[in-house]
Structure formats: structure tokens, C-alpha cells
Amino acid sequence: MKSILVWDIPVRLFHWALATSILFLFITAQIGGNAMEWHKKIGFFVIGLIAFRVVWGFVGTYHARFENFVRAPVTVITYAKNLFKNDGERYLGHNPMGALSVVALLTVVGFQTVTGLFSNDDIMLEGPYASLVSKVVSDKITKLHQLNSDLILVLVGLHLAAIAFYAVFKKEQLIEAMLTGKKDLDARIGLVPEEKMAEKPLPAWLPWSIVAVISGLTYALVTRVFF
């Protein structure tokens, strides 16, 4: 069975960097105290990660672009109905439900970083923009930040459950694919024609240029250069 490149290096690095960051954000939040300084710094890093993935979703490689994996609700519903059928349609990139998971995680994690900019812990730590709003407003945003963290844990749990489901019932090793970037091209299962093409990496300077620009903008944002 032929293996072809599906996930480029920028997508893979983003995926594992975000997964690691979410883990450490949760750990530092549970520890509290001085660990919250790291919580804050990692949160700033995640802002850059989310920004990069959004940009890469428009200018990146084929399977990384939103236009090539985000599908209409009716397609998601149809795919979900056939989820337990072994002969159901297979996608080299994100399947319709996986695409929904990607969009959901980007949205809730993005929301978490934005609310973190205005949050406070009532002791010694506050986001760089907390002083721009009243204490009452900051407290309300902090509450949303805390509630949204529970939603992130739920989505992460569903994501892990989906990985296990595909490994056991679909015989698709999604973790391995996100490590190597390669997936098997199974001719027995229907594939969208253009998805039979192996991913063609873009010039190496492009993602690093985007990283450089986003890093600068993120630094300017969290240090309030423009505010």
C-alpha cells in the first residue's frame, strides 16, 4: 500500500506545539501561584500559534487550507450517519467531522487566549489589557475564561476518543500520520480525485516568514505597543 505526504511540517509542528501548550496551561492553572507566570507566557505563545494556523489555513498547502477540508453541515451529518460503516468514504486530509473538530478547537482556544488578555486572578497576576476595562468587566471575562477552559477539556477528550475510535474501528493511525505526515492511499475506498495527489510542500521561506511576522505582531499585542 502506497503512503503519500498529507500533513506538511508546519501543520505537524503546530499540532504538537498546541497539544503541548494546552497540557502545560492546564497544569500551571492547577498549580497556581508562581506557575501562573508560565501560564501567562504560554498563553501568549498560543496566541501566535492560533494566528499562524489561521493564516496557514488560507495560504498553506492543499490539505492545510480551510477551503479544502471545511465542509457544509449536510456533509458532516451524512458522514456522521455512515461513521460506523467500514465502506464509508475516506479522506486523506481531515474528514468532515475532523474538520469540525479543528474549527471548534481553533475557535475555543482562540477565545481562551483573548479572554486571558483581560483576565485577573485577584492576587498578583492580570492580563495585559485588564487595566483597560473595569474590575467588574475583568472579573466577568475571567469567569468566561475559566468556563471556557472546561469546554476545551471536553473538546480535547472528544478528540482523543476519536483518535482511539479510528485506530480500533477504522484501522487509521492518526497519531502516526501526524508524526510522519504520511497516510496510506487505500485504492479500495473512494477518495475525492484531487486528494489522491501527494502534498507538495511550499517554499521553506514562506512558513518561516509568516512565523516571523506573527511573532512580531504577537509581541506587539501582548506588550501593548500600539495601546
How would you describe this structure to a colleague?
With 227 residues, this protein is an all-alpha fold. It has a single domain (3-222), classed as Fumarate Reductase Cytochrome B subunit (Up-down Bundle), CATH 1.20.950. The protein is 61% helix and 3% strand. The chain has helices at 9-31, 35-59, 73-81, 96-116, 135-170, 174-180, 205-222; strands at residues 3-5, 182-184. The model has no long low-confidence stretch (mean pLDDT 90).
Give the key terms.
227 residues, mainly alpha, Fumarate Reductase Cytochrome B subunit, 7 helices, 2 strands, 61% helix, 3% strand, globular
- Across the major sheet, the strand order is 1-2
Radius of gyration: 19 Å
> Would you state the CATH class?
Mainly Alpha
Class by alpha and beta content: mainly alpha
Principal-axes geometry comes out as globular
Kindly report the CATH topology.
Answer: Fumarate Reductase Cytochrome B subunit
Topology order in helix (H) and strand (E) letters: EHHHHHHEH
Strand content: under 5%
Number of helices: 7
Low-pLDDT residue intervals, each spanning 5 or more residues: none
Largest sheet: 2 strands, antiparallel
Count of extended strands: 2
Percent of residues in helices comes to 55-70%
